[in-house]
Please model this.
Amino acid sequence: MKHDHTHELPHDATTMTRRNAISTLGVTAVAGALNGVLPTVASASLPLSQGLPSTAGRLRQSVARWCYSRTKIEALCATAKEIGLVGVDLLGPDEWDVPKQFGLLCTMGNSFGTIPVGFNRLANHDKLVADGEAYIPKAAAAGVSKIVVFSGNRAGMSDGEGIANCIAGLKRLMPTAEKHGVVLCMEMLNSKVDHKDYHADHTAWAVEVAKGVNSPSFRLLYDIYHMQVMEGDLLATIKASLPYIAHFHTAGVPGRNEIDTAQELNYRGIAQYIADTGYTGVFAHEFIPKRDGVTSLKEAVAVCTV
Model:
């Protein structure tokens, strides 16, 4: 089947991403907002295994749903299975059960909050806690063991106050998360390019939150793309922060597109380094393909199979 390149749009100011969709619409509206915007994965009947390793190596690789939002979840799961991934990342409740049909996992659930309105403000806590206490048991029942959460935007707040407020709010959810075996993962995002004013924009800031929450049910989602844009020094930072990291995201820098030679990171070396630490969590691809989506995903998996 020939892939229809007319559906592929560049990542520019007119493209809605998962991030700004969540920020403006909330989780329940993301799927509809993204539909028809991003490139599609080709049919699962394609000979995807040609030229690929039979396994994704020592890293448990996954793919972010929103990057292939025009593809039916069943087709994406079939593709992921054949490529050798362990699951699909960032699914909402309506899709949590689909990966199981293919012997895959939902490797992370979407948030019950939004990027700009997060745990760094006391005024947000009652709603976030109520929503989380309803959401966490449902995720656990569906076999979803990790959920992404966000700090919220600064809006003039100091780092110290933001850290203290995040700790206070997240601690309220830890009894529920611990009871159900679910880990809430705060994602670090860059505030330089994509998410102006986001508070958890440095690893050290998020690590302080994790230390304060002090629970096995709270960890960090280290987005390699965002942290390269924001602070660099990736390998040393990962090494120092690894006890608090439960999930990784990938994308090419700059532009959050393909993992290829047109971007500045040595993803083969990064994957090798992370695998050598003995990391057993998920390493999920969250890039926006500018060309054929299946080809790009296959190449990313091959690069990171170590």
Remarks:
- Residues 123 and 165 are 10 Å apart (CA to CA).
- The beta strands are 60-64, 87-91, 105-109, 146-149, 183-187, 218-223, 245-250, 282-285.
